[in-house]
Amino acid sequence: MANLEVTHEGPAKSGSLEIVTFSTLFPNVGAPNHGVFVANRLRHLLSNENVSARVVAPVPWFPFRSSIFGNYGLMARVPYAENYRGLSVRHPRFPVLPKFGMSIAPTLLFAACLPVLRQMQRERDFELIDAHYFYPDGVAAVMLGRALRKPVVITARGTDINLIPRYRLPREQIKWATKNANGLVAVSRALKDALVTLGVEPGRIEVLRNGVDLEMFCPVDHELARARLNLSGPTLLSVGQLIERKANHLTIEALRLLPEFTFVLVGDGPEKARLQSLAQKNGVEDRVRFLGVISHEKLAPIYSAADALVLASSREGWPNVLLEAMACGTPVVASDIWGNPEVVTTPEAGCLTDNRTPEGIANSVRRLFAALPKRSATRQYAKRYSWQDTSDGQLRLFERVVQSHRVSETQA
């Protein structure tokens, strides 16, 4: 089971603000890395004695628990309720309908979760819904807030704003949610700008970036970490789901131009077979290693063993892997898109590439390695991004929203 290091179960802390964090993106016993960025932000928020939280993390309904059904079978095996190191997490089921499901997903999510939140109210009332990911989660959260007369704050995280609004019906529902939510958060300025293009007043959006856990992600002796993985020569790293938009295929193709480099991939996903085949096709399979899924708390030695992390994504909100690598002393090569330029701002952090091609990635890797920063300098850069400022900003926003809601309820 993943370690969230949270110890807030049972009655709320005396005098604290009671929230419900609502998102389909949250770790569970079967998928401990799923939505770990949401859990991390909540974990650090809860270090403040002025807030208590419970979690509602819906999962798709599926009738069969067998592993032969892949992720659907995995979701079917998730318990309806679990305790993540003292944090109460409930997993109501919601139906997912092929073809038509995307347009009605918020309504299905709302209908499945309303009885659960009503029950939670009866057990111990809460004051605010803290929703993550705009679609369908944020839209459903606003519907829940209206039904329960609770204020809602929605956090935009990436594809929910830089991809999904391209579809007409989801875009209209997202715009409705922005108008009816009590607070809006973006994890990067780029996502704030995207919300503004949807018609949101800039002053309504708080930019609260993700931070990095500087204790979990700290340098391990570079040579010792490399020896444990049996690495030799310069090593590039990718950490995350093996999906198309992460563009690991570009880095594999770039290896033809980087004959001395090894590429290590941590994670799993639908692109794995294609990436393995691509490595064979390009004659670099002996320099591409797939380590599979590694739990969050065991990643520091992997980051420390690499010489650079490569993130060639086509879309990102605020990619945590960049700061995690830097906190372990490993600089990065990242595509010059969305939130990445807000994370990589100095040579100590690494470099950006504005040419998302194998040639562009190879050139950027060469440029980084021509003046590779000291690992201690990269670690020092990451220290700028602790969680404290973000947690303080969250709490101020939540308290302001709750107070405003109390006043409006009194006047109603």
What is the share of helical residues? 40-55%
Strand element count = 16
Q: Structural class, from secondary structure content?
A: alpha/beta
What's the main sheet like?
8 strands, mixed
Describe the structure.
The protein is α/β, with parallel strands linked by helices and 412 residues long. The chain has 2 domains: 17-211 and 387-407, Glycogen Phosphorylase B (Rossmann fold); 222-385, 3-Layer(aba) Sandwich (Rossmann fold). Helix content is 41%, strand content 17%. It has an 8-stranded mixed β-sheet with strand order 4-5-2-1-7-8-9-10, with helices on both faces. Strands 13-12-11-14-15-16 form a 6-stranded parallel β-sheet, sandwiched between helices. It has a two-stranded parallel ribbon with strand order 3-6. α7 links the parallel β9 (183-186) and β10 (205-207). It is globular. 47% of the residues are buried. The model is unreliable at 1-10 (pLDDT under 50).
List the helices and strands and how they pair.
Layout (H helix, E strand, L loop, with lengths): L16 E6 L13 H10 L5 E6 L2 E2 L9 H7 L4 E4 L2 E4 L2 E2 L6 H23 L4 E5 L1 H15 L3 E5 L2 H4 L5 H13 L2 E4 L2 H9 L7 E3 L14 H7 L6 E5 L8 H7 L7 E5 L5 H10 L6 E5 L7 H6 L2 E4 L8 H8 L4 E4 L4 H4 L6 E4 L4 H13 L4 H8 L5 H24 L1
Helix pairs in contact: 3-4, 4-6, 9-10, 9-14, 12-15
